Every structure is written in structure tokens, then in C-alpha cells.
Amino acid sequence: MTGRFDPNEADRRWQARWAEEACFAADSDSDKPKTYVLEMFPYPSGRLHVGHARNYTMGDVLARYRRMQGHEVLHPMGWDAFGMPAENAAMERGIHPGTWTRSNIAAMREQLKRLGFALDWSRELATCDPAYYGHEQALFLDLFEAGLVYRKESEVNWDPVDMTVLANEQVIDGRGWRSGAPVERRKLAQWFLKITDFADDLLEGLKTLDQWPEKVRVMQENWIGKSRGLQFRFRLTEPVGGTEDVEVFTTRPDTIFGASFVAVAADHPIARSLAATDAKAAEFVAECKAGGTSAAEIETAEKKGYATGLEVVHPLDPEWRLPVYIANFVLMDYGTGAIFGVPGHDHRDFEFATQYDLPIQRVVAASSELASEPIGEEAACSPGIAVNSRFLDGLTTTQAAAEIIRRAEAAGWGHGTVQYRLRDWGVSRQRYWGTPIPIIRCPSCGPVPVPRDQLPVVLPEDVSFDSPGNPLDRHPSWKHVKCPACGGAAMRETDTFDTFVDSSWYFIRFASQPTDAPFDRAEAEKWLPVAQYIGGVEHAILHLLYARFWTRALQRLGKLDMAEPFNGLFTQGMVTHETYRAGDGSWLSPDEVKRDGDDWVHIEDGHPVIAGRVEKMSKSKRNVIDSDTIVQRYGADAARWFLLSDSPPERDLEWSEGGIEGASRFVQRVWKLANSTGTDDGEDAALGRKLHRTISGVSDAIEALQFNKAVAQLYELASTIEKARPSATRADAIRTLVLLIAPMAPHLAEECWFVLGREGLVANAPWPSFDPAMLVDDQVTLAVQVNGKLRDTVTAPRGLDRAAAEALALSSENVRRQLAGAAPRKIIVVPDRLVNIVA
Ligand code: ANZ
Ligand code: ZN
Question: Fewer CB within 10 Å: N-end or C-end of the chain?
């Protein structure tokens, strides 16, 4: 009897062997079918926890499975290495962001290696490396030359204490996430990518993504937000500052007879020209600048307005006047920056009208009979039938909208439009730790692209973080350069790219990485699109949309011939863990607490601990399990096995000590089986059928990414083998079991393969095939009826002949009771299905 499987020793040995043989290096020139498996590359935050490990294990199983199926697999890994946390670390701990990031990468790389992932490390990249971002700068210049980049003044969230621009998600309840200071809106000139040029393509393309989760497609669709509407002008009764009318955009032209006011954004030219002469208006406009710029914030803020005293004429009734307001809920960069308000049928307008005592009129009802029903406590937003709307009365919402657009176009006061909620992508960030934007600002020539032979524009690392704001601005020499166009004194752009730019094309660079170009088209096209992309649903909108945009932009530039970068998308669930708090409310990590009967106590001082909700592992709640701790204690395979086993991959998995221990026991059971074959001979038909069914079932489950189902079937097969008598079939089943577990528990599989005396590495072995004939079940259930009524069911071998089926049915206890000694008059047999006894 061999001893226990020692994962620590075996893991190391096989990992070294795979590396030595460059087993997982992807050969772009291979003739085999190519498969590109990709997990969203990690941000190097410091340590790899078991949540990350779960994500990579899923991709790894697929990658290893495809290799065994004879595919040439590209399964790369890299680092999304720019971003805020590195700067925070620099400010809090005085470590340079580069030092911090690179040491995190080194630590996490080793952690990944200890999990035994089949990765092509030769293609590893980090976005903070000039060898990566220099190519990104070149691609940006390509887009610039193609007219897909422009500079525009845009409102940002300004943190007056940290003196920095905040992303919307960094504004919490109107305050900066770090400083806690009330956020202001500021205008800054920033670079934009014309993603809106592709709005319709990006929307249409979603229809082709049939291997994406429905919910992600819906989220993208909503984000792009295509709406049809009407754009038209209200005439002002008196012009203001040379303006004679107010142009509005509506998606509900059918409600035009329910209008009770017109409102413009605080930044609207009319508001601005009023503010120039009217101090009250100016004050209101200034007030509108407070608070964040996010849609959610604007949506939930109290609706406020300023009555300008101006009036407009209703386009369908020259006698009808509507008051004009400046309102805080109207955005300048959507539609035309002005609206007409219909309080009866829009929530924001309802709130506004209630506040300012404006008429709330019903113009849509569930049926014509309900025309006089008053609007109740809230706006009625559902479509219905037009009422109180003159010539529209009786039309459905859709018909009425079309009718108004028709009349507006015929009479020339408006036109039908298509609007997208999608905005152009502002890529400028006033941050240090990012890709420098390769532009030089010249006082006489304006913005000038950095000449290509001066790329990469390298981020200087000799900077300090002792005062807030962007260190690039304060660097003594970096930004001072000569204008490439006129040779005069000029300044570099000190903004850096949004890190989403870095992650918008990394999957192309993985596929092909020449030194003198971002990628080689022919080589990239050998691998792309990614066959299976795996990652968190938190990236369902922005990252995926930006990556889709870049791919399309590169297609337009003739640099890559594909529209969609990711064929299959899978969004995995989170790994969760119970949370613990000490009496003073501070969070405790799972290794600082222990069980005490039904309660938990703090190991250090024995004080009681409050066990809280099971939540997603996060640093802030300290409920994180580090992958190394687990790998050291149980080995990589037990960790991988548990991460796949307990719940469907799209659902959350609660980390449990019991679960990982169970996985670890299974590893030893397989090891024991592998060491239990002798000179076995003879057949075991039932075991053979079980084996073939398992091969088929596990293959299907992996194809469908239902890893937990694959694991369940392997548990079953192992138990069946454990109970089987020695036979040639059993020996074969053990060999096959080893192949089937190889994608999930690769070190164990290699070790077993070796003791079974098999040639080469299991990682390179072909995936087992099954005999479809063996999938057919040999047992059937026969229904036994007496006079057409079901009296019993019996199990019989498939294909049982008529006489044997009759005899079996007649031997049933129930049947005999029914017949009560009488001889049956007739017996009808439907083979493999039923026996009916007519008494
Ligand atoms: C009249 C109306 C009546 C509206 C009604 C809605 C409901 P979506 O569908 O999200 O595209 N709107 C237009 N421009 C705006 C802006 N710059 N800031 C804030 N709101 C604006 O939204 C389109 C609707 O949002 C438009 O249709 C307009 O209000 C408002 F029962 O016009 B609606
Ligand atoms: Zn110049």
C-alpha cells in the first residue's frame, strides 16, 4: 500500500515539469484547431484570494480540456496594472506606485503558479510596462488620425480637497470618497473617443452574441439606450440674447397636449444669457453645479427650478403659453438640453410640478372611458390610449407619437430623431499612475500628436506624492518639451488614460506581440475572437463595451478584421465568506476567530465575536481567504476541486472549511484507486457502461461550463469503482478517471498517470472517447397493469422477450392479489414498456 498523496511535493514537481517542457506555450503556427480561452486579467492588488482562484480555475479546466481534445490553446495571463489603488498606497504608505505594483505582480504571479494553471507565461504582460502602453499610445494616434478622437470641455466631479477629478463611483452621497468633501462640478478640456459613432453597430452586434448571457446583452442594450423621439422648437414670446426659440427633445411626443412647462439645463445658452443679467438666475445656475454628475445622483436629487418669467407658444395651439424654467434635472449633454414637462406621465416632471404648483393633466389612460380619472399620487408612465388630446384621442401611445412626428415634419416645426443614451468616452484622467496621453499642447499650434518615433512617452518615475493633485504637473522637467510642429516651447498633456483603455485591447496583444507594432494582424486573427471569456459581471457594461468598440474601431481602420472580440462570455459568481466583528465593531479575519460551541470567539483574547452576514470576499470586511494558505494546507488540486464542486459556476460559492476538507479527501481516494490496480482481467459490463456514461456526461458538462456537474459525476464514478470487483474494466476505469479529473486536478492526475506507468504527461494525453452504444441503459422499468389500471412497476433487462415479461408481471405480489386466483384471459406486452393483464 502506497502512502498518502503529498500535494506540496507533487504540485512543485509537476509545475516544474510543465514549465521545463513549455507545455502550455501557444504556438501561433500550429496546424491544430485554435482555441483562445481568457479570464479577465487581474488588477495586481497584492494577494490572490480564493475568489480570483475560482475564476482562473474555470478557465483552466476549459483550456486543459481543449488541449486534451487536440486543440492548440492560447491561455494567457497578465496584469491590469495601472490605477488608483497604487496611488493611494503611495500616498498612505510612501511606496512608489511602480514599486508597489511590481511587487504585487511578483507575489500574485507566484500564487497563480502554485495553483498550477496551464498558462502561457511567455506572453505575460503588464499594462504599466512601456513595452505595452507605448503601443497603446500608437493605437490612440491611429484613432486620432482617423478622426475618432477629439477634445472637448466637459464637466467632471471635482474634489476640492484632494484637488482631483473623481469618477462617478468615487462620489458617495455627493462627497469625495477619500476626502469626504462636497464635490463640485468643474469644466475641463478632455480627450474623448467617438464611441457614439458605433452606437448602432454596438447595439446590432449584440444580436450576434448568442453565447453571451442574456442579462449582459440587456445591460449593454440599456446602456446604449437607443430611443426614437421628436426634436422640435418652441417659439419664445420674446427673444432672449438673440435666441428666438427653445429646441427640445422628447421620446413621448404623444403626450404633447399634457405639457405644462418647458425647462432648460443650467448650462443651456438661455440659462447662461439670463444669468449674465439676472443675479437670481445666476445664483440658481451656480447652485446646480454642486453635487455629482452621475445619472443616479441627478435622478435622486430634489427637483429644483428657477422660473425665468419667459414663455413659449405651444406648437399645436398659438393661444397656449407655457412657462420656461431652468431646472436641475435637465442635463446639457443629452438631447438638446431642454425639455417640455408632462407631470401626469413622467416622475421627474410630476415631482417638479407638485413643487411649483403647475397643472397635472391626464393625456394617457388605460382606456378612453378613463379620460377623466385624475392622476393620483404619482405619474402614470405606462403606455395606453391618448385622451384629452384633441385629434390624438383614441390613438395608442405608439400611434399618437407617430402622428405627432408626421404632423411636425409636414408643418416643418420638428423632426423625428434617434437618440442614444451612450455618450462619447472621456478617456482623460488627472492621475499619475496611467498611460501618458501622447499629445503635446502648443500655445500656437494647439494639441499636436507626439511623433511616432518618440513613442513610447514614458511615465517618469521620479515623482513625489507629498502633496495632492497630479505629480506629473509638478515634475520639474517632464512636461516641458518643444512643439513637434513649430519647435516653440510647449507642454505635454499631463493627463493619463482611463485604465479601461488599457484593458480594451490587451486580449489582442496576448494573441500577437511583435516589438515594433501593437500586434500583427495575421497572427492576431489566428486566435481571435476569444472563444471563451470568463469574468465578473461587474464588467458587464463598461469593459466589454469599450473592448467591443476598440475592436470595431480597429476594424474600421483596417487593422483587424472582426467586429466582436469575444465569442463566448461567462460571468462567474463570487466566493463569499461569513464576516466577523469584535466587540468594538472592527472586522476580524477568519483566522483570528475560532468556534466556541455555537458561538465565535477572538482567538487572541477570548472575547466574543459577532458573526455577520455571508458576503463577497473583500479586503474591507477582512473576510478574505488567501489562496496560498489553502494551497499550503490542502494542495492546489483540493482547492481547485472545491472551487468547482459546490455550486453552479454562475452562482456564488460560500467558502467552507468542510468543503475544502471533503475535496482533500477525494484527492486521497483517487490516489488510492490509482495505486490499487493489479493484474486484473475479466469484464464488468455495468462498470463499463457507467464509465462511458461518465465520459460523455463530463465532456458535456465541461462544454457547457457546468463544472459542478462534471465534478458530481466524477465523484459517482469514483464510488462505483471503489465498490467494483477487480477486472480489466476496473483498471481501464481508473485510467480513464485519471484523464477525466486531469483538467480539474492536474497535479494529482499527473502523479496517478505516472504510477499507472503511462507514457508522457497527462496534460498532453488525448481526452477519452466513449462508445455511444454503451450509453444506452440496459435496465428498463415495465409498467404492469391489470385491466388497464397500473398496479405495479418492475425493473427488467432491456429487450426482455414476451414470455419472460409475462412471467415477470404475473409474479408481482400486487397482480396476484388483483387476480385472486383467476387465470388471465389475455396478456398484452409492449416490449420494454408495459404488460397489461386482462382478467
Ligand atoms: C416629454 C415626456 C413626457 C418625456 C413623458 C418623458 C415622459 P429617455 O427615454 O431616457 O431617452 N429629457 C430629454 N432630454 C433631457 C435632458 N437633457 N435632461 C433630462 N431629461 C431629458 O428620456 C427621454 C425623455 O427624457 C424625454 O421625453 C424628456 O422628457 C426627457 F410622459 O419629453 B420626455
Ligand atoms: Zn507649435
Answer: N
